[in-house]
Design a protein that fits this description.
mainly beta; globular
Length: about 140
């Protein structure tokens, strides 16, 4: 991967958002995360920072909001990239240009897109399971 792409994937962007980790455990950097539908701005608890959790096993990938840019400790806030270039970890083989989804089997990883499911973005690099993949994050429903 070129230095330019590494810089793009690590430089803070205006589109980055702050979320609070309600998962109960630390969420590593480069992890696809989902909106926590019990801790959201405007809920009855007076939440002012939207919450994130790992996508649930068998859950709905359409709730994914982006990729963590840094490790977010349990109960703490951190940066999530909902739009732009970021690294994510593959679960299976991914080829450059392929549309990718957030994996709800191995929470937080990405995998090749499944038709009629929500997509997380497009791979800018390729690799095998466990490899960091450069992704242009641009979620779409029923892609």
């Amino acid at each position: 991967m070129s230095a330019t792409y590494d810089q793009l994937a690590q430089t803070p962007l205006a589109s980055d958002e702050t979320f609070k980790n309600y998962s109960g455990s630390d969420i590593p950097a480069n992890t696809a995360v989902a909106l926590d539908t019990t801790n959201y701005v405007g809920d009855s608890l007076g939440t002012t920072i939207p919450g994130i959790i790992l996508p649930a096993t068998g859950g709905n990938p359409s709730l994914c909001v982006g990729i963590t840019m840094d490790k977010i400790k349990a109960g703490q806030v951190g940066r999530v990239r909902p739009l732009g270039t970021a690294y994510a970890i593959a679960n299976g083989t991914i080829t450059p240009g392929q549309t990718v989804d957030a994996d709800v089997t191995t929470a937080g990883r990405i995998l090749a897109h499944t038709a009629a499911k929500a997509s997380l973005g497009q791979a800018r690099s390729g690799g095998a399971s466990g490899d960091p993949i450069l992704v242009f994050v641009n979620p779409a429903l029923n892609a």
